[in-house]
Amino acid sequence: MPATPGIVRPKTFAPRRAAGLPPDERRAAIAAAALKLLLEHGTNITTRQIAEAANIAESTTFRVFPDKEAVIRAAVDLALDPAPIERALGEIDRAQPLDRQLVEAVEIIQRRMIDIGRLVSAVGGPAVFAGRERPIPDVAGLASLFALERDELRYDTEKAARLLAALTLAFSHPALYGDEPASPSEIVTLLLEGIRVRPDESDLHSRASPC
Fold this sequence. Notes:
Blueprint: H1 23-41, H2 47-54, H3 58-64, H4 68-80, H5 83-90, H6 98-123, H7 139-145, H8 157-170, H9 174-177, H10 184-193, H11 202-208
Helix pairs in contact: 1-2, 1-4, 1-6, 2-3, 6-8, 6-10, 7-8, 8-10
């Protein structure tokens, strides 16, 4: 249709699409969205739900992953990635007293165990670990917490770190310690002080103990 003389028609522009993420970032964003849904609803989720949670078109999901199972595997890999726990351990303030640092470390490990437990329940049992190494606390990160007081320790820092990790896992797992896990401060006290009453505490202990 010819333009009417004297009328200037406004230019029209096609809407610009948002710049796409690099493939690795897009994959991580989809996996993160799937992980949140997985923990809430288990594996009975759809690729449409995952796409909506990731704020993308469903077709975009299939340009990154071949099927829903591949998305779920990526979500599990993300959940088991040790990088977040390593960063958290690295951010503990080394200027604090050793026992305070260790309490924070135990809190980090216990939260990790809770997350992994939720993941196992959501996916349907220990099969979540099939073909994967079970995530363990970062020994190097834990060992660094003991570095400034290594001369006061009976063991080297790496063994001390492994003992802390082992105690935390043992005293936090419901199958080993019941429904109520030991608190971080209890675990740290057990590691640093043991269970034997000190000589200066023996009288107090005997008075508090039932006959």
